[in-house]
Write a structure and sequence with these properties.
193 residues, two-stranded antiparallel sheet, binds iron/sulfur cluster
């Protein structure tokens, strides 16, 4: 598979499409891979019926990388979620940017951007080949991170609710002189500086 991870074959990534072909799905839907990929698949699976490329699953992908027009980015993070290889970085409400070395040009970040500030720039064959060589591993890592974060967040939520309840209970049982404590902190800070 060509490893754009673009999902145009109607599956989330190249590995998933390969698995689907193995379980009987039509093998002619990787338009970005073109005739070259189609011939490789036919050689490999030796199908009874030879199909031509199904262009309904296109269009092809030229050599391109995404580029964020930084002054226009509102930091909504939607492109990060959409990128299959974690090629976009940025913090919520702050400017985002693309790590061009690993961008396959798959275009998945373009539609979710609410302010349309991602453009596609032409690049070399070598750059795209390098990005595609890394993309299968990066795709798996992204999947793992997503799953782990979900589990972690779920676990942390429970932990946090428990902790908050415990702290509130302790505070209720204590009489705290807020003013005296504040004064103490201010004095300590003053002494330190
Ligand atoms: S390159 Fe895109 S269309 Fe081709 S197999 Fe990979 S994800 Fe599917
Ligand atoms: S930055 Fe955009 S075009 Fe590049 S790999 Fe990620 S989603 Fe695809
Ligand atoms: S989707 Fe667009 S506006 Fe939102 S963070 Fe990405 S580039 Fe910025």
């Amino acid at each position: 598979m060509p490893q754009y991870q673009c999902g145009r074959c109607d599956t989330p990534g190249c590995r998933d499409y390969a698995l689907e072909i193995a379980s009987g799905k039509p093998y002619n839907r990787c338009v970005p891979g073109g005739e070259e990929t189609l011939i490789k698949i036919i050689d490999l699976i030796q199908p009874k019926k030879i199909l031509s490329l199904d262009h309904d699953y296109g269009p092809p992908i030229p050599n391109q990388v995404a580029h964020i027009i930084e002054e226009e980015c509102i930091g909504c993070k939607k492109c990060i979620d959409a990128c299959p290889v974690n090629a976009i970085h940025g913090a919520p409400n702050l400017m985002h940017s693309v790590i061009e070395d690993i961008c396959t040009g798959c275009e998945l970040c373009i539609p979710p951007c609410p302010v349309d500030c991602i453009e596609l720039l032409e690049t070399s064959d070598t750059q795209i080949q390098n990005a595609k060589n890394m993309s299968a591993d990066l795709y798996v890592i992204k999947e793992q991170i997503d799953n782990k974060s979900r589990i972690k967040i779920k676990h942390k939520n429970k932990e946090n609710i428990g902790l908050a309840e415990e702290i509130n209970q302790r505070l209720e049982n204590r009489s705290i002189d807020k003013e005296a404590n504040l004064k103490l902190i201010q004095e300590r800070l003053l002494n330190k500086s």
